[in-house]
Amino acid sequence: MDRLQIQGVVIDIRSWTKVILFIVATACLTRFIPFSSFFRNVDTLIHELSHALMTLVLSGKVMYIHLFSNQSGVTYSAYTSTWKAIPISLAGYIGASLFAVFLFYLHARKQEAAGLIAIASLALISLILFVRNGYGMMWCAGFVILTGLIWKFAPPWLRSGYYLLIAFICLVESVISSAYLVYLSMNMPNGAGDAANLSRVTYIPSIVWALLFTAVSLWCARISMGILFHGTRRGNR
């Protein structure tokens, strides 16, 4: 059976199985790449920066962002209304998932150079305006310098490989971090980060929010795969 229908909603089991297997395989492969932990902080930065940007959109104040060597991060912000915690908390995981789609979209349009400039610019802006702990500042500075050198001096094959490494890691980490949030929500509901924050404001269990984040990340992964393989087939014609 390739399709499952639940209350009128048709689920393509084969397609979603391919997505999950693709993510698992990519996660395993990226772990073998030297210094891959360094690049996993790109996803963390985008996650925290999404919180910060939503705070600013809602007229709040971003106090600071901290990035840590274990690929975790935190954004401290101030806002006037309790309800604003909902879109701010939602922005992190959803923003990181959408950013992965954006990276694969640029790759399909052969705009890797523009993508590298965009990623480095976000890291530089974060360094100047938001990131305030020692490790986070050093990471942002190092990433900006490395990415700038790759963009400016690397041969096309290396620049493309570097870009795809970041894109694949962002894709995988957006799914893995959301799935891990499900685990935390079941075992330590009060320590489940954004899901716990949303639960405190809405009184909806944190597991519901964690599952929502996971569903969004998987959907974005499916879109990214479609962009990647469609672009590859089109390029081979």
UniProtKB/TrEMBL annotation:
InterPro entries: Peptidase_M50B-like (IPR049500). The chain crosses the membrane at residues 20-39, 88-106, 113-130, 136-154, 161-183, 203-229. The keyword Transmembrane helix applies. The keyword Transmembrane applies. It comes from the Bacteria. Keywords: Membrane, Transmembrane, Transmembrane helix. Coiled coil: none annotated. Pfam families: Peptidase_M50B. This is M50 family peptidase. It comes from Paenibacillus alvei TS-15.
